[in-house]
Amino acid sequence: MGISRTSRHKRSASGAQRAHYRKKRKFELGRQPASTKLGAKRIHTVRVRGGNLKYRALRLDSGNFAWGSEQVTKKTRIIGVVYNASNNELVRTNTLVKSAIIQIDATPFRQWYEAHYAQPVTKKGKPTAAAAETAEPKKISNHHQRVLDERKKEGKVDTLLESQFAAGRLYAAVSSRPGQSGRADGYILEGRELEFYIRKIRTGKQKHAHAA
User: 79 near 57, Cβ under 8 Å?
Assistant: First the structure.
């Protein structure tokens, strides 16, 4: 039996069984889930209704992620899945789905910040090579110096994000559908949303510790 997306097999609101008055239809079909895993990029194309194509990502290792408060997007490496509201199995197996909370490499965003604001993104941890370069005096025009001074007034990073930059990993949410578009794109978690998911991740770890 193929996967079908109908509800004719379901009982009605009163509990009565519905009559089987027709067979399955092609337009009601469903397909196996993609279950996109972490790994070297592997994407299959699927021919769908109307001759269109879907891109079924079987493995992905990177994506484009937006830093909303700074209005910048960078391609970066995906490190792992840390939380999923629907199923803990998807965390254990590192399955990429929409709305999964993942960890990404912070390096591209740190490099952009240090180039844009001419100051380190965090004072914690060892100074990076880029920060060491900015510490050395560079010949820049007075106009460029004034631009950098104005940027530094606004270049403040949230304390939660700062600690993540120090660790080299950022929490992000997947907003694309890897099994449909073949991409794992999303955005960096900030503000109250970040606080919410950090609480969820901590309580999940505590539950596992008590269970062990």
Answer: no
